[in-house]
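Before relying on records like the one below, remember that each one covers exactly one chain. Contacts with other chains, cofactors or solvent are not represented anywhere in the record.
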Amino acid sequence: NNNYDFIKIFQLKDEISFENLMKAAKKFGMGVCGHYPSYIESKKSKVIDFKTLLESGYKSIEHLGGYSAIENKEKLKELIRLTKVNNVYNCPTLDFFNTDLGLKYPNEYINKLSYSQTPNSIKKKWDEALKEREKDTSRISIALVKKKYGHEYKRKIEVLKMLYDSNCLLLLGGDAGGLYQPEGLNVYDEMKHWQE
């Protein structure tokens, strides 16, 4: 395995690529984890069947990918059961979702412990970048993002609680690096989100 510990997926070419990757990973004892596997087919986004994913040997899912889109409660309960049975970890990264999408803008992010512990020079850069972001007309405004993703965030909290209550495996990670997300410090913020 050339001293690699695992393979992290962001996106795939197609479903066959996923199947081949999982077969090769199993053959060579390599873990596979990452985002909920998706691919583009005929200009439309497609995802790997959730049950197939959970039974494939996939080790960990980032951002609670896939779960929050399941509206049917019985189906969601069954997928969470399969998550537990197959020892699939989940890394919620709620702080990324909250901070990068601006769900806590304009005032809540400055009350975070990580913000108070960050050097002023970095905070100034973040503030400048945020002003530029708001000027960029090609990006959706923070107000519209909050409206669009606020419901999805609440759904992620519900899913996290269901995973926790089912004794599923969880990983703590903040997916730092965005505006107002200092590496290391935002793990504290992530734990605060888990309390919601």
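DSSP finds eight helices and six strands in the chain.
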